[in-house]
Write a structure and sequence with these properties.
EC number: 3.2.2.27
Enzyme class: hydrolase
Keywords: 4Fe-4S, DNA damage, DNA repair, Hydrolase, Iron, Iron-sulfur, Metal-binding, Nucleotidyltransferase, Transferase
Radius of gyration: 27 Å
Family: Belongs to the uracil-DNA glycosylase (UDG) superfamily. Type 4 (UDGa) family.
CATH superfamily of one domain: Uracil-DNA glycosylase-like domain
CATH class of one domain: Alpha Beta
Order of helices and strands: HHHHHHEEHHEHEHHEEHH
Number of strands: 6
CATH architecture of one domain: 3-Layer(aba) Sandwich
Helix content: 40-55%
Number of helices: 13
GO molecular function: 4 iron, 4 sulfur cluster binding; metal ion binding; nucleotidyltransferase activity; uracil DNA N-glycosylase activity
Shape: globular
Distance between the termini: 59 Å
Length: about 300
């Protein structure tokens, strides 16, 4: 095992970033902790006490003359469970209702951003570094929605960062756009550990936030990037290859908005052969923006 004392500051920083990107959330402690014993103690503490012995009478409780009175020692099961850190909030029905209330109470994107940053009802927030919120120009009428923050997004605090963000900038430039002229956001505001897919419960807790972003921004056209984003809004289980390239309508807050899905820039980095498909989708998206007079030539 490599000791931290043998690493330079740059090597140590790189190692820590590697572990964070891999989804490591806890470091080893100085002393070994018996988690099995902690779990058993916590179960015993929650279990109602068993009435196995009859309570002694007051006379029996009084010490005899000359007998020193001592306090009874609690059994292992009666001892309080060892203190542990705060338990992560797991999305449930009550948390979903709270998220809806918080989202609907926001009257602007800035208010919604503040509300999401203060919201603690989703476990994803406790493992993420940043809360990724919409950035760019809401007044453009053009909205681009990705799936979930990547490790680079989480580190930088902005959507579409890193290498995939650089490719994304080139994709926008090819149809006469840039990230400052559209509104960029993600379906999930917090990066799932290890870039795993968000669970159905996590999707439920985040749905009010992304739908409220759309309602407040009032886009006239939406570009969805990635398999997860397409499935989330279209309600289908097909792959991105079956969902991409065709205009559909999504209903949010009483408005029907045209939306088209395409491959995420990260998909194109993994399989560059699909760039031709993404380019075709971008041309269809550009034609729609021209028809809506949203492109400034």
């Amino acid at each position: 095992m490599i000791s931290a004392n043998d690493l330079s500051p740059a090597e140590l920083a790189a190692l820590l970033h590697f572990h964070a990107d891999a989804g490591v959330e806890w470091l080893l402690e100085e002393e070994a902790v018996d988690r099995f014993a902690e779990f058993e103690a916590m179960k015993a503490a929650r279990r109602p006490p068993a009435q196995t012995q009859q309570e002694p009478s007051p006379a029996e409780q009084r010490p005899s003359p000359g007998q020193r009175q001592t306090s009874p020692r609690p059994s292992a099961a009666a001892r309080p469970a060892p203190a542990s850190g705060p338990q992560p909030a797991i999305p449930d029905g009550e948390a979903v209702q709270q998220a809806r209330f918080v989202a609907e109470a926001a009257r602007s994107l800035s208010e919604l951003k503040t509300a999401i940053e203060a919201f603690n009802g989703c476990n994803l927030k406790h493992s993420a570094r940043s809360t990724i919120f919409a950035s760019g120009k809401a007044e453009s009428g053009i909205m681009v929605i990705g799936s979930a923050p990547s490790a680079e997004d989480d580190r930088e605090g902005t959507p579409f960062s890193g290498k995939s963000g650089q490719l994304f900038d080139k994709m926008l430039a090819a149809i006469g756009l840039d990230r400052s002229s559209v509104l960029l956001t993600q379906v999930i505001p917090w990066r799932p550990p290890g870039n795993r897919p968000a669970s159905p419960a996590e999707m439920d807790i985040c749905r009010p936030f992304i739908e409220r972003q759309i309602a407040l921004a009032e886009p006239q056209a939406i570009l969805l990037l990635g398999n997860f984003a397409a499935r989330f809004f279209f309600g289908e289980n097909d792959t991105i290859h079956g969902l991409r390239g065709r205009w559909r309508e999504i209903a949010v807050a009483g408005r029907v908005i045209p939306a088209i899905a395409s491959l995420h820039p990260q998909d194109l980095l993994t399989a560059p052969v699909n760039k031709r498909l993404a380019w075709n989708d971008l041309l269809v998206f550009q034609a729609k923006l021209n028809a809506l007079s949203l492109l400034r030539n």
